[in-house]
């Protein structure tokens, strides 16, 4: 034994403790999904949101999800929404009118919501979306830089975000921000 008290037994005990700590940390990392929390695997240029089960279009057909390829073709709008979000409910009619007026495809991303709640919400209020993708963990929302719901984006080919409005829309936003951003694409 040396004068610092480090015998082989002490070194083995310390190594074992560090090994157990490493295994515990690895398990916790996976259980808490820390990789996704710290390193978002979703990118605007490479994503695919699955369809929300049960959501139908105006013809009664199941709507599809959407991906980066859908946004890369031309100008489009993406609306991050949830059935539990009061501002989303208030702006829903504006989104529907915007969809009809512009002729630009509007994609809905369901943010951290239950699919059955979204089905009922869109059945009651109408479905203005060309496609509705499910973002149950909010990874797509993080990829687009949204700070919550509602969030409305004008997306240019590429795809790349030309305009993001976090929070509820006002009529002035459509005339002063969204319409010019769509014309510029």
Describe this entry's structure for a reader.
The protein contains 7 helices and 7 strands; from the N terminus they run H-H-E-E-H-E-H-E-H-E-H-E-E-H. It has helices spanning 8-31, 34-38, 68-72, 86-102, 115-125, 139-143, 171-184, and strands spanning 48-49, 66-67, 76-81, 106-111, 131-135, 151-156, 160-166. It is an alpha/beta fold and 185 residues long. The chain has a 5-stranded mixed β-sheet with strand order 5-4-3-6-7. The relative contact order is 0.16. The protein has 2 domains: 8-32; 42-184, Glutaredoxin (3-Layer(aba) Sandwich), CATH 3.40.30.10. The N and C termini lie far apart (75 Å). Helix 5 (115-125) links the parallel strand 4 (106-111) and strand 5 (131-135). The chain is elongated, with a radius of gyration of 23 Å.
